[in-house]
TrEMBL record:
Protein name as it appears in the record: Uncharacterized protein
Species this chain originates from: Hyphomonas beringensis
């Protein structure tokens, strides 16, 4: 019972995160990619 509850909770968190990602516009992904590239260059 507890295991099923824990797995369902993690699955709902992943679904919530996926829904949040789907609401992000493409521009935010471009800025995120640029930040990762700059971070990789400087750090």
């Amino acid at each position: 019972m507890d295991d099923r509850y824990n797995t369902s909770e993690t699955r709902s968190d992943a679904g919530r995160f996926g829904r949040w990602l789907s609401t992000r516009p493409a521009e935010s992904w471009m800025f995120f990619g640029a930040g990762v590239l700059l971070g990789g260059l400087f750090f």
